[in-house]
Every structure is written in structure tokens, then in C-alpha cells.
């Protein structure tokens, strides 16, 4: 059973009789990395001072390891709790090692306290852990703000505490040291059962590293829960009074928030055939503004913002060890910036491209398709094919002159795929391996991009207004493009 290290029960308190915090109750278990969030003035630092015993409480109870906080003697408490405040200062000309060594005071015994071998080993260990061993003999007054922060963290760790209280520990640290520090804290909680309670201003770091979060609002608890529940868009916008949007982290199961700045409203633009340029080497569509995209391109895959879209012709026997690297080199040779470009490949003759624009009252779409069926595959029987990477022969571009939700992006891709499969069915395109009707080719690519201006389009399923346009345009363009390509066969 996991031990309860800290219990706060109906605590009220503040400064000079003024109640900054009101009726605060929560618990922290051993080995947790527990984050405290809240806007300026919400009571975060006041709470941390109460937990450390620096600031007395007016009402309620704080228990450390099932014992009342006020029942601990200072030296006893220092063996359990170490504190790293936000504005640590050092008025004496101590060396780094001497400053860290002060953390061993609570463990030294006797009237004439002596420095033991164990003290030395622990100090050297924590200095190495936070990356300050190389300048341990340097005067602390000569250090930068970030270096001082790491020294005082080492001092706190030298106490060998069971609970570590931190007030914005990444303050003054550059990006690499922020990550390194929080990685260490996470590791120490998991391996050594160290309990960490920390104030965070950076919601993303809190969401990424903390097991649980406490959100304060005007001196009271808004919520005490897992990060995914605390970092909800509506809640954070309400508490912090700013526009944000929540996204999952791309590598770990953690919520992340992005600020939504107030941007100058751009004039509505319309993506259309006038922006298309076709050569024998590539098809280019250049947008005057960045478009929010979701694609399976060789370059620019996934989601992002792009202004240039390139569909490159390659030989049917194209083969390359690193096609992404080679594609990026090709784009640069033609004057395109790969980071701003979605790039696809096709073996189809590019002059057989088909495009179409469809409009409704408040929005429109522009669809462009290149298609050939030399490597057609029936997806339901694809296990009968050998794995062979060949250039995609059906590349579908969908441009929406409107604003799409995340849901609409995904639904739009589904709708377009269904329309493409129907086109192949009606043309009776055969999978040459299975002898059955094909549903696509072995490496088809798709792109959906939106101006994110104009009418909000929440859905793109097949029977929605947007879905109906996508279905019609993709079906008709795919049919015509395949017919053009097939006419070239001997």
C-alpha cells in the first residue's frame, strides 16, 4: 500500500491575518510528482510556505507522515522536507561545494559537528546529478541565475529529504537543463520514492511530468486530479482568462496547451486553379497564405501549416535508399523550402492531372487528382501482395476555402477515400494479383488543406455539405484521371 506523505485538511491562512488560502484540502502519496498550478495571486507560493512550516496556518491541519507539522522540531523536519524557493539568494562568498554542503546540517550530530565520509559522498553525488561538479570550487556569486538554481537544488537534495518542495524549479534554466532536471525528478520519484511537490507556471511541463495537479483559483481549489482532467481547454481559459487550445503530446500520453494569439484577421482567399502550375517534372500549387494541412506526403506528412504543395513525377522504376532525403534535395533544387512544402511522388504523366472547383453559398473546395492503376490493390486481400515500395499513382489534393475542425479533417480524408474506392469500383479496376476489384494503389497519398478563414465546417462526413462536395469532386476527378492514364497504355 502506498504511504500518504502529506495531508492538508481544510487549511486557511495567509499574511497578517488576511486569508490568502481558504479551506484547502488535498493529499500527496509517497513517490508522486505533484504539481501546483494557478495564475499569479492564486496562492501557490503561500501554500508552499505553509507546507514547509515557514508560514503558520490560521485554521485546519497539515500532517507530514501522519504527524502534525507543528509537532516536528526544525531539525527533525529538515530530515524529511527540503525546500527550493523561487528566489534563492546567497549573501556569503561561499564556494559551490560549501553551499551544497549546508544541506547536510540536519544529519550532523554532536556539539562539534564533523564532516563524515558519508557527507562527502552524498554532496559529490548530488552535484554530479545536477551537473555542477565541474565548477564546485567556484564562488557562487560568480554564477549565472541558472547555475545558482542548480546549486540550491543540489543543496536541497543533499538533505536526503523524503519530500522535496520546489517553487518553479525551472526558473532561470535553459531548455536542456529544464528537461534534465525534470527527468531527474521523475526518475527519483520512481526509483527512490521521493515525493516532489512543485509549483509550475509552465502548464506544458506540468502536464508532461506530473502524476497529479492541483489548480488554485483565487485562494481556493478549482480541481485536484490527473493532468488530462485539470488541463481542459474550458477550465484553463476560465481560470487564466486567455485563449488556449489543448493537444496531445506527439510522443507520450500527456496533454499540452498552446496559446492562441490575437492575430490580424486575414482577407479571405480562395484556392483555385489559377494557383496551379504544371511542368513535366512537377505540379505546384502555391498559396498566398499558410494552410492548415493533414497529409501523407513524402515531405510534410502529418499535420502542419504549409504554403507550397508539390506533386513530383518520378520514373516507374524509381528506387532510393532514403526517399525523404532525396525528395527534400529535389525540392531545394527547384527553389522550394521543404519545411513549408507538402511533397508527393507519382509515376503518372503530369499533364493528365484533373482538377475541379465546387462551390456552395458560404464555402468552396478545390480538388486535384493524378491517378494511374498500374499497381492497383484490393485492400481486403492485400496480404497476397509482396511488400514493395513503389511511387504512389493516385495522389489526391483537397483544398477547402473555409475553417475545418480536427474532426472534419479526419472525416474529409475518410470521405475522399470512399469516393476514390467507388471510382475504382465503377471503372472495374482489377488487382492483377487477386483478380478482384481494387480499392486503391499500393502507396496512394492524400492531402486535405484549409484556409481556416470563412465559414466554420465542423463535419465532413459523406452526407454533410462539405462531404458531398468532397465526394463528388474526388469521384469525378479520379474517374477522369484514371481514364486519361489508361489511354496512354499501348
Please explain how this structure is put together.
With about 500 residues, this protein is an alpha/beta fold. The chain folds into two domains: about 5-260, P-loop containing nucleotide triphosphate hydrolases (Rossmann fold), CATH 3.40.50.300; about 275-485, L-amino peptidase D-ALA esterase/amidase. Strands 13, 14, 15, 16, 17, 18, 20 and 23 form an eight-stranded mixed beta sheet that branches. The chain has a six-stranded mixed beta sheet with strand order 6-7-8-3-9-10, sandwiched between helices. It has a four-stranded antiparallel beta sheet with strand order 2-1-4-5, covered by helices on one side. The protein is elongated, with a radius of gyration of 31 Å. The protein has helices at about 45-50, 75-80, 95-100, 115-130, 145-160, 175-190, 205-210, 225-230, 235-240, 325-335, 405-425, 465-485, and strands at about 5-15, 20-30, 35, 60-65, 65-70, 80-85, 165, 195-200, 210-215, 220-225, 245-250, 255-260, 275-280, 280-295, 300-315, 340-345, 355-360, 365-370, 375, 395-400, 405, 440, 445-450, 455.
Amino acid at each position: 500500500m502506498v504511504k500518504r506523505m502529506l495531508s492538508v485538511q481544510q487549511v486557511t491562512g495567509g499574511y497578517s491575518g488576511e486569508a490568502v488560502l481558504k479551506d484547502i484540502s488535498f493529499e500527496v502519496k509517497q513517490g508522486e510528482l505533484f504539481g501546483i498550478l494557478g495564475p499569479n495571486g492564486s496562492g501557490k507560493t503561500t501554500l508552499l510556505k505553509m507546507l514547509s512550516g515557514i508560514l503558520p496556518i490560521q485554521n485546519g491541519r497539515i500532517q507530514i507522515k501522519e504527524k502534525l507539522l507543528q509537532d516536528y522540531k526544525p531539525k527533525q523536519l529538515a530530515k524529511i522536507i527540503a525546500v527550493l524557493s523561487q528566489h534563492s539568494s546567497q549573501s556569503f562568498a561561499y564556494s559551490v561545494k560549501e553551499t551544497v554542503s549546508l544541506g547536510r546540517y540536519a544529519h550532523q550530530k554532536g556539539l562539534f559537528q564533523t564532516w563524515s565520509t558519508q557527507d562527502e559522498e552524498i554532496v559529490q553525488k548530488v552535484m554530479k546529478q545536477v551537473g555542477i561538479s565541474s565548477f564546485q570550487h567556484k564562488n557562487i556569486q560568480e554564477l549565472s541565475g541558472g547555475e545558482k538554481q542548480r546549486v540550491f537544488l543540489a543543496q536541497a537534495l543533499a538533505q536526503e529529504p523524503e519530500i522535496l518542495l520546489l517553487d518553479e524549479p525551472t526558473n532561470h534554466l535553459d531548455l536542456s537543463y529544464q528537461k534534465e532536471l525534470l527527468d531527474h525528478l521523475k526518475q527519483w520519484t520512481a526509483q527512490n520514492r521521493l515525493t516532489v511537490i512543485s509549483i509550475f507556471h509552465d502548464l506544458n511541463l506540468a502536464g508532461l511530468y506530473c502524476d497529479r495537479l492541483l489548480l488554485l483559483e483565487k485562494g481556493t481549489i478549482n480541481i485536484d486530479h490527473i493532468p488530462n482532467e485539470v488541463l481542459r481547454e474550458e477550465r484553463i481559459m476560465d481560470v487564466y482568462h486567455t485563449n488556449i487550445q489543448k493537444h496531445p503530446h506527439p510522443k507520450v500520453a500527456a496533454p499540452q496547451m498552446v496559446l492562441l494569439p490575437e492575430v490580424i484577421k486575414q482577407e479571405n482567399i480562395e484556392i483555385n486553379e489559377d494557383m496551379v502550375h504544371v511542368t513535366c517534372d512537377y505540379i505546384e500549387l502555391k498559396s498566398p497564405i499558410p494552410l492548415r494541412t493533414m497529409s501523407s506526403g513524402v515531405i510534410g506528412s502529418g499535420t502542419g501549416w504549409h504554403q507550397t504543395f508539390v506533386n513530383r513525377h518520378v520514373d516507374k522504376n524509381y528506387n532510393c535508399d532514403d526517399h525523404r532525403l532525396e525528395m527534400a534535395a529535389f525540392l531545394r533544387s527547384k527553389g522550394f523550402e521543404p519545411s513549408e512544402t507538402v511533397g508527393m511522388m507519382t509515376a503518372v504523366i503530369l499533364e493528365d492531372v484533373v482538377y475541379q472547383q465546387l462551390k456552395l453559398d458560404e464555402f468552396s473546395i478545390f480538388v486535384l487528382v493524378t491517378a494511374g492503376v498500374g499497381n492497383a490493390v484490393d485492400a481486403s486481400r492485400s496480404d497476397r501482395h509482396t511488400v514493395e515500395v513503389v511511387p504512389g499513382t493516385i495522389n489526391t489534393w483537397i483544398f477547402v476555402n473555409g475553417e475545418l475542425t480536427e474532426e472534419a479533417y479526419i472525416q474529409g480524408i475518410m470521405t475522399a477515400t470512399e469516393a476514390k474506392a467507388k471510382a475504382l469500383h465503377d471503372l472495374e479496376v482489377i488487382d492483377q494479383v487477386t483478380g478482384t476489384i481494387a480499392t486503391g494503389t499500393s502507396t496512394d497519398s492524400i492531402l486535405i488543406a484549409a484556409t481556416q478563414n470563412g465559414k466554420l465546417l465542423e463535419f465532413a462526413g459523406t452526407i454533410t455539405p462539405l462531404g458531398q462536395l468532397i465526394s463528388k469532386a474526388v469521384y469525378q476527378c479520379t474517374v477522369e484521371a484514371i481514364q486519361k492514364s489508361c489511354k496512354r497504355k499501348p
